[in-house]
Design goal:
alpha/beta; 2 domains; 7 helices
Amino acid sequence: MKDLLECCIGLDIHKESVVGCLVTGPVDCKEEKEIRTFGTLSVNLQELRLWVEEANCRYVAMESTGIYWQPVYEALEECFEGEIELLVVNARHMKNVPGKKTDMRDAEWIATLLRAGLLKGSFIPAKEIRELRHLTRYRKSVISDITSQKNRIEKFLQSSGFRLSSFMSDIFGVSGRNVMRYLCKHGKMTMESLHKEYAL
């Protein structure tokens, strides 16, 4: 493999630790390696960021391991005021590149491939887009939960002999909720009792 970068970092990310391998040196000479291990708490990720900045390293690659890469990516994407090349690489892609991993550590292997320009990063949207995605996905999840609970309530009413949906277009509207409150309070109902209490 022919080296292309003089300074790069490979990150091997786990649930509770991040192993980084800094590779430096002219492309036509033997490289120097420095390996450090960091925790995954916010304070530890700030230490990782400081290490990257002190090394003046603008090329960093990491595996897309579950969701563990996300806080690491967010901690590093503002380095050098955003002037940094962050690659999130599919692990299967690294297995298909030339060379053998042998007994090299994962972080070293990632750094070696990055130095040789053999890694292709996945598309990562801008931070604003990622935050909007989180919001819309959470909203979708909440709406789905609400719909599920409404269906459960209606099924319970149907099984108990109260077929409100046969008489109301929306049993969770104002009138429908009044009827259900009355049922919860009295356990039974008649049209006369409902008219008397809620003037339906």
